[in-house]
Write the structure tokens for this entry.
Amino acid sequence: MTPDTILAVFFCSLAFFVFGGIAALILSRFNTFASFWGAGVAMGGSLIGLCAVSAGFAVGHPFQSVLRIPLGGFCTLHFGFDPLSLFFAGITLLLGFVTPLYGLGYLRAHDDGKPAGPHWFCFNGLLAGMLLVFLARDAVGFLIAWELMALTSLGLVLYNHEDRRVRQAGWLYLVASHMGAAALLLFFLMLAHDRGGFAFSAFMAHRPTGFAAHANLLFLLAVLGFGTKAGFMPLHVWLPEAHPAAPSHVSALMSAVMIKTGIYGLLRALEWIGPWNPAWGWALIFIGLSSGLLGALFALANDDIKRLLAYSSIDNIGILTLGIGIGVLGVTYHIPLMAAAGFAGALLHLLNHALFKGLLFLSAGAVYQAAGTRQISRLGGLFKTMPRTALCFLVGAVAICALPPLNGCVGEFLIYWGAFKGYLSNPTAPIAPLLIAVIAGLALIGGLAVATFAKTFGIVFLGEPRAPLAHAPRDPGLLLIIPMLILVVACFSVALFAQRVVSGLSPVLTQIAAGGGAAPETILPLNALFRPLTLLATVFALILAAGLALYLVRRRLLKNRPVAAGVTWDCGYAKPTSRMQYTPASFAQPLLDPFTPLLNRRIFSRIPRALFPKSSTLSTGSSDLFQTKFFIPLVRSLNRSMNLFRWLQTGRVQIYVLYIVIALIGVILWSFH
Amino acid sequence: MNLLLPVLKIIPLLGALLAAPLIPGLINKVKAAFAGRRGPPVLQLYFDLFKLIQRGAVFSRTTTSILSAGPLLSLVSAGFVLLFIPWGPLPAPLAFEGDLVLVVALLGLGRFMTVISALDTGSSFEAMGASREVQFAALTEPSLLLILLALARMGNSLSLSTIFTALPPDQFVACGPAILLVGIGLTIALLVENCRIPFDDPNTHLELTMIHEVMVLDHTGPDLALILYGASLKLWIMALLLANLFTAWAAQAGVLPASVLILVALGLVAGLIGTIESITARLRLVKIPQLLIGAGACGILALFLLSR
């Protein structure tokens, strides 16, 4: 297929989303039909889009395809695609194919007479918005798509709008995404002013060969604008509120793909601004380390399973930002191996995170649906009643902890590899201490992730139920299980075919690195990564085989032997009760204690006193440091300072007419000037 | 020679699989000697494993299949780590640029599985051990990676198989302080990874400082055998790394002399662990993170010395 045909196929898939979504809205009255219709067009559109993506990757040579749509004399919208947008569109459409199926089952089980039409309208709108973000080839179209994405996802977050907390989360999300959009508006205006046009081709054509004027300011604006969407640490506050508030398939889509549009924007911005400043690599690594470490700590401290997953998304965004930072440093310091491994690791981790975080959100949603609570401390022993969900969650947990034999390990391995190579290439360079910090930081993030997911899996699925549930939990139906299974298979396949994935991504990687001012003849040495990746995959396959073999041996050993069942021995407690089990808070306490001030942890306790003590309680909670200590006071003081202007608003019409007259006179005077 | 090499590379692996349970036996002998006892025979662990393999099993009704998946996968992961550990000048059966990162990840897999299989029992006692295990692991992993980075710097390679042979004998002395620091860091990592004193006590689970032993309280029969065997493999792995480090000066001397040296060094490591266990007390739990961070500091200091 020629690039132009592929673009046409993309528009075909967009038409599915747009017209299908509108039809779902119109069909709202026939509820069941509208939901089947809405989910169906989302899946169909995604499937068509996926065909376009695979055809795009098959083209094989560098390509640019651009479609111009003139909007009267006002401006012209440009659409097109290149390897970078293909990669992101592919991930989006994959999740766009999987999640509607789940959503269909999920919303049906929650059926409370709510019209499904508006939900599916927003869902299709979100998919269209994301796809348009990746296809847009000028700033105007990009910002329109960006806004479409923000508003439709707001509509999805507000699905349970009767709940006050959901409305609050939606409000916070709306404000945060527009703060980000404001930074982006400024970014694009400055860029368009410098380069003489809003089209991306103009940005690229007038790219400075040397260090651009206000390049640092542009970079800062891009980090602020795109970082808000991606969830960089101090800008993340909307994320842990909005993700738990949305229905689970929406949380999966938002966490797996939508926040990645921020990363897409950042990579684009790096392409436009011009030759990179090494300081940006440093900045990205600091952002990555702070998002990674704090995100992992907040995740560990949380008791709400979906909030925990949202914080863990921040931590994973941090990890992949580390990868991008290493890539940027590799390009600017001319260490090709480091650049290749950093960017390859970042992209691979991005793909992996979409897969395993999608899986984790979907299985957490199944738990929420079955048990009626998201609080980890009230759950327990679900493995026995929901074995399929438990195994899916376990796969996701092992993957997100970056452990073999799953895909999470491969991406992080490449980032480590890049940092090690960069260090060894020149151990006395000024970046050497930074790389040491990256290695230690990544390991600490990994350790915290292991603690978080051992806690979550162990407490939710293992042991005994901790609190009585509304009804007996059981595995969800096929509509929910199949999407999870697809993601499980995808996780395993990326792990086992990592080398193919990376070599398939080579046009994307070359495009990113070329943006840094790396001369075109220095191609990224991706071949150096292939042998480690192949061996990694071999070891993963062997581990699976060896585990299976040992399992068979063990079963053979126990075949004709007495196998008894009893209570947990536990050094001889005769009658253990489920209330004697460890709580998630106690499990996390030793690791969290040193970070108490950072986590804003509060401990509520009523200590037993006197000779015959009455009941005593102990509970801990933590709230988001940046929200409570920075944003809320900031907004409060802003409100207070606005009070100073209240005397302007008297409510009398005469005064307002006076304002108009003063304004008119002012304008007339200024026009004479 | 080309035909012989793959066969030769397998021999240390088979040797490790057969001889790993000897190390705990040696350690116990040393400890007994310090205490003036005769102590259990060196082959005691073999007897235990043999006995456990023949037993049936008892499972708690709370548990699921995770309980038995834990020991199984932690043994598998230890076995795969062994594939990447060289034997002096003889490269490991599997080697590639970056295998040292995979080794850490594999150890992590074993730990994760042990932890969730402890949580599977629903006992607060075992969960307490699990909680401590993840705490110490989160601090050990950065330290271990920094130590490995120092090793990589010494051998200018990301593969364990070439690191130890890359150091020319004349530079061994010049790098002496750094090697010593890396050795100290590795020893600390060995002690905490294998739950030895001063971090943990392999002999008992009944004190509140216990970590590893308490996690495996509810494993019986063949599962317990898998755990004990896996633990001895892990001990062998770390001891072999130390032995490789301190015999790196003889790497050019040929396989046979180097092998003899490594065997002696392995014995010495067992003696060292036994001595440490005999003459030190367990650390208070709050002090353990400091020592773990200290191991990381050893790595950073070694890097600093090497980059001067």
